[in-house]
Amino acid sequence: MPWVALGLVALTQLSCSADSSPLGSLSASGPLLGVDSLGPSGLPQSTLKESSTGSAGSSSKGERSVPRDRQGDSLVLAAGGAGGAEGAGMSPLSGGAGGYVEHSPPSTIPLRLCFWNIKKLGHGELKNTPLLAQVLEEQCDATVVVEVMQKQRGSPGYTALRTALGESWTAIVTDTPRPNTTSGNSEFYAIFWRKGRLSRCDGWEELRYITDNDGSLGGVGENRFVREPAYGCFEMVGPEGRFDFLLAAYHATWASGSVRTIQAEVQNIDGALAEMKNSRPGENDIFIFSDYNLVPKKLAEVTTLIDHTEGTGSTLNSQGERTSNLYDHLLVSSLVTTPELGDKAEVLDVREVSASNAIFFSTVSDHLPLRVLLTLQGRDDD
Questions:
Q1: Number of CB atoms found within 10 A of residue 38's CB
Q2: Contacts of 113 (CB under 8 A, 6+ apart)
Q3: What element of type H or E holds 118?
């Protein structure tokens, strides 16, 4: 029997029955089990499932999930032997699922750019670092991380997460924390990315802080930010073209929840973007990811930048339930000059990776990640 490659349209039109190969034979009698809808990247939001008893439309205790493979790949189900698929450059699905994946070139699929405030990364003994790595591996190709805590002048949480992600990922962290003291409450900024999806621009080997008083005993100048933004320059390159952009991380002051105090700091973010732009003349693609500690309405009162974020509930209460507060945002300088930027950044509810919402809160984070898609559009306009 021939191989059948399932594209995204066909994927919603075919189903599996559990009477032949591990994933069953193909039929055209309804939706593929486990594919409920398409996510923002155009991919199924849920994993494929197979049932050990009954037909494809049933659900039972024997049901298991087929591990998801790389975003953008095409699912190929085997109706015959394995030789044809492997000979065509396909690879088996992970976990012995009984199918194959035809890999797309990395540049032909969107870059999944994420932001995550990972609660006190590097402090305490409860943090489930392998689970953090699992979320990044499944949901993101690059991630801006804030609340990377200082411990004895180092950033052990950053090191542990980078190790957990393995050799297919790389990362960069700020040289010093903010405030630049030995306090355990000082924080670093970090950016993690999948090798082959991003690279640093020439001459941009480090993350650069916005000009500000660093908060040390010998700090000089006006102290506009408790933790001033830090940024770097990154580049996507592929057959469709290239795209470089400036990417910043920022964690606004909390000030015991005083909106007025938070706004007094965040109102300096437009000036921070102007400094970023001046650091790379002609660059119009500038992104600032942050936990701004402000809901959209209050954020809009103190910035002229575009809030390219939608949804609610990026923060969790102590029981791990979503609040109505959207504190995490992506601010951009322009949508006109950045056609590579897809739909607005959305909150990813990834709490299902933990046994309960409360466990997610205590071992993962009190924030949910944001994600936006970047797609090459040919020659970069700047």
A1: 13
A2: 140, 141, 142, 143, 144, 247, 287, 371, 372, 373, 374
A3: strand 111-121
Question: pTM of whole model > 0.70?
Answer: yes
Rounded-to-integer distance, Cα 77 and Cα 21, Å: 9
Give residue 99's pLDDT: 61
Looking at the chain, which residues constitute the CATH 3.60.10.10 domain(s)? 107-374
Give the model's pLDDT for residue 102.
Answer: 54
CA distances from 143 to 109, 111, 146, 160, 191 (A): 17, 11, 10, 15, 6
Domain covering 107-374 assigned CATH 3.60.10.10 in the classification: yes
121-122-126 Cα angle (round to 5)? 85
Give yes or no for a contact between 139 and 172, defined as CB atoms under 8 angstroms apart.
no
Are 326 and 313 spatial neighbours (Cβ–Cβ below 8 Å)?
yes
Q: How far is CA 150 from CA 91, 292, 328, in A?
A: 42, 20, 22
Measure CA 19 to chain center. 38
Q: According to DSSP H, which parts of the chain are helical?
A: 8-11, 83-87, 129-139, 156-165, 259-266, 269-279, 296-300, 357-363
Give pLDDT, residue 39.
42
Give 3-state DSSP helix, strand, coil % of the chain, rounded to 5: 20, 30, 50
Point out the residues of the chain with pLDDT beneath 70: 1-108, 378-382
Query: Could you give the C-alpha distances from 174 to 41, 106, 171, 177, 207, in angstroms and in order?
Result: 30, 28, 10, 7, 6
Report whether 292 contacts 252 (CB < 8 A).
yes
Q: What is the pLDDT of residue 351?
A: 98
**Which residues neighbour 193 within 8 Å (Cβ) at sequence distance 6 or greater?**
141, 142, 143, 169, 170, 171, 234
pLDDT digits (tens, 9 = 90+) for 101-130: 555 554 568 999 999 999 999 999 999 999
Between CA 190 and CA 143 the distance in angstroms is: 8
Q: Residue 284 has what pLDDT?
A: 94
Q: Measure the CA–CA gap between 335 and 338, rounded to whole angstroms.
A: 5
Beta bridge partners of 306: 332
Structure tokens at 361: 């809160």
Name the DSSP letter for residue 228. Answer: -
Beta carbons of 261 and 294 less than 8 angstroms apart? no
